[in-house]
Amino acid sequence: MAGEQWVYDFSEGSKDMRELLGGKGANVAEMTRVLGADRVPAGFTITTEACVAYMRADKREPEGMAEQVESALERLQEQAGKRLGDDEDPLLVSVRSGARESMPGMLDTVLNLGLNDTSVQGIARATENERFAWDSYRRFVQMFGNVSRGIPGEAFEDAIKNAKGDRNVKDDTELDVEALKELTDTFKGIYREHTSEDFPQEPEEQLRLAIRAVFDSWMGKRAVEYRRLNHIPDSWGTAVNVQQMVFGNKGDTSGSGVAFSRDEVTGAPEPSGDFLPNAQGEDVVSGVRTPRDIAEMKDWLPEAHEQLMEILRTLESHYKDMQDTEFTVEEGQLYMLQTRNAKRPAQAAVRFAVDAVSEGLLTKEEAIATIDAGRLDALLHPTFDPTADYDVIAKGVSASPGAAKGEVVFTAQDAVDAAGEGRDVILVRPFTEADDVAGFHAAKGILTSEGGKASHAALVARGMGRPAVVGADALAIDLKARTISVNGTELHEGDRIAIDGTTGQVTTEDVPLVEAQVNEHFEQVLEWADEIRRLGVRTNADTPDDAAKARELGAEGIGLCRTEHMFMAEDRQPKMRAMIMAADEEGRREALADLLPLQQEDFEGLFEAMKGLPVTIRLLDPPLHEFLPNLVDLSAQVERARIECTDDLEQLERLLSRTEAISEENPMLGTRGCRLGILFPEIYEMQVQAIMRAAKAMDEPPHPEIMIPLVDYEQELEIMRDLVVRVGDGEGLHEGEDYTVGTMIELPRACFVADRIAEFADFFSFGTNDLTQTALGFSRDDVESKFVPTYMRRRIIDRSPFETIDKPGVGWLVRLAAWVGRERKPDLKLGICGEHGGDPDSIEFFHMAGLDYVSCSPFRVPIARVAAAQAAVIHAGDRDWAYTQA
Ligand code: PEP
Ligand code: MG
């Protein structure tokens, strides 16, 4: 039986083989096909699987690999018409890493391999350029020593410095042949000193060691750290590309450069890039010499420039995406060394998409697919100027995008007061609670030391479009002393601080901000997204302002109004407390009667803002203690009142005893959601009455959808639905005509019995925040700053399940509920209103789960529109999982 193929010639590969050949190997192979063999230096790729086998076998090359490398090398020598180590006109090769995803600068590369004491003479003769030959040899010894044997770079750099000092010259390029010969000898001495071995003269031995070094660099510290930050699995391994060297350092008609098919920052159609005459590739990127703009290449070598421009166009239309390339000119002859899809900021991504369609390069569908939807946020919020220099004092979870600067305040009240005086403030707290919401409005930004993407602070900040960094656990916040200690320094109330919720950075410096840029290209992309997508996009909004903002950004209705936020306003809270404090139902009804007109006003505002569109209103969900003062603070207050015998002692004691009575060990699993509605139906009755009256007060009938939270048992929904219908009837409005009734699906049991629940529901809305919390048993307010980072480091998970839906676990529950719910009721409307509704990866999943819409915070609406369109493009023609035969 033939053994495994570990080595592929470039002529055998293609861009579809990136898992096996790595990104670079697959693209070089593809480019060889597209541009022809004389534009791309020949070579071969050792597969990622060989690297994986090598790691598994404790750093032993897999069987057959050495022989395959040998015969690939033989073919390469034949094709090039040159041999490694030859003393006439030797072949030299580069040995480069190339993982499936690019990991810039993380893995190792060796250039000029094949040089030794003999072949250096051959190169000198063949090129009639002795200086070039010795310059290449000393570079090779240096790189090989550093990469293959771990000799510190400074050892070589110091020797270069000395050589220049001895000869009184400034630049490396001023060192003459004699100097370079001496330097090569010095380098070989350094090699001997560090390894106790002579520099290897046998090219095959050099190649073997270099391949091992690239494999080993995959497990190097830098690379491991990079993969952890970028969610790249260790198990992929890297490929190794061995390629015939061409030389950019052969004199004035040679050079090296990088070129983008379009401007990589703005996306404008002119190619951009840098080049250096008489230089090898690493000189361009290392910053040792200042490179020149690609446009100037026209004056230097007009023909090569013209060819390069033509090639960029060819590659772009072949790959159907913006390209990022590396090239070398050797004595006037242009060679392309690599190409890949260009990573680019959001503004360049939308500009490219629009231009590519108008140029006829891409269809709308293809153009939409080239955009990284998650990054579009940057177009809607100001951010720290990416070119600015500043010290980051702490980094947290990027919870709500945008940058903000202001004075530190520690309480919501201080934020409100400061805003009243026209001061910009950042509200800093260990974590936030319902009570703090007024402070969110007043502050420019929110910073917490605890919590994650689904924490209260993150949710509310995103909902309001306030920048927020949460879970910045390097900050020790002392609310009593009103100080923040961080890495040995102390910040006080009033000190200036800046946060960037797009990157999670916190700084005390006055970083310049760059403004949001919603432009015509973005508008165009969104318009196309709307034509393509199947999923509807709604918003989570609790105020008319948020609703209006979301509508402006394209929301097609409200998917979740969290009514509890309405009871936090200053005029509401005392009334809410009075209701909770009431001794009996009659007392509660009295207090609720005071809230009714206010609540009606709230709904009228929402209906007005969302005229003609559906508005999903969720009845009260959080545990009641969230509306009462904090138990610890209150106990202290009572203690003080007792000592001072103040007049409000009795009232405070009553408040304390009530707060104690309703406090729970696990309030998130306690008396909340529809359980409140079952225990205190009068609360839900008031809310429903307010909805009905608001509806009647509108000129144009609205589309209210009344939603019951946290349903476990179908009986709960049955009882709640009866309550809604009874109140509706009393107001003269009818279920199915004037409004609908549905439920959140946010508990595992509800997913399992979704068919039974569907019996009583016109719609389901998946509450994936609570569903993630309850399915995984992960407290949503704690885990992201506690163990999720460790879980990511240990590769148990690659991102927070509160950010991207856990597809096999929580996602399965969603699929199941969608499927059996629709089986029971084919026209059941299905939506999702957890935070995942604004996450592109999760949106693709919801598209396939057969949902009708996603709902997300206002500023994520454009992202969701584009992501929904991408899902439709990717899965065009696929039948969704909830599909049931009629
Ligand atoms: C949810 O649980 O996903 C949800 C939307 O509700 P909340 O975040 O208010 O609990
Ligand atoms: Mg919930």
As a percent range, the share of strand residues is 15-25%
Main β-sheet, spatial strand arrangement: 12-22-21-14-15-16-17-13
Number of separate structural domains: 5
Task: Estimate the mean pLDDT confidence.
Answer: 92
The radius of gyration is 33 Å
Task: Set out the fold topology.
Blueprint: E1 7-9, H1 18-35, E2 43-46, H2 48-56, H3 65-80, E3 93-99, E4 109-113, H4 119-127, H5 130-149, H6 153-167, H7 177-195, H8 203-218, H9 221-229, E5 238-244, E6 255-260, E7 272-277, H10 281-286, E8 292-293, H11 297-300, H12 302-319, E9 323-330, E10 333-341, H13 346-358, H14 364-369, E11 383-384, E12 394-395, E13 397-400, E14 403-409, H15 412-420, E15 425-429, H16 437-442, E16 445-448, H17 456-464, E17 468-470, E18 476-478, E19 483-486, E20 489-492, E21 496-500, E22 505-507, E23 513-514, H18 520-532, E24 536-540, H19 544-552, E25 558-562, H20 573-581, H21 585-609, E26 614-618, H22 631-644, H23 649-662, H24 674-679, H25 681-697, E27 703-708, H26 714-730, E28 740-745, H27 748-752, H28 754-758, E29 763-766, H29 768-776, H30 783-786, H31 788-793, H32 807-824, E30 829-832, H33 840-848, E31 853-856, H34 861-874
Parallel strand pairs: 14-15, 15-16, 16-17, 24-25, 24-31, 25-26, 26-27, 27-28, 28-29, 29-30, 30-31
Antiparallel strand pairs: 1-2, 2-5, 3-4, 3-5, 6-7, 6-9, 7-8, 9-10, 11-23, 12-22, 13-17, 14-21, 18-19, 19-20, 21-22
Bound molecules: phosphoenolpyruvate and magnesium ion.
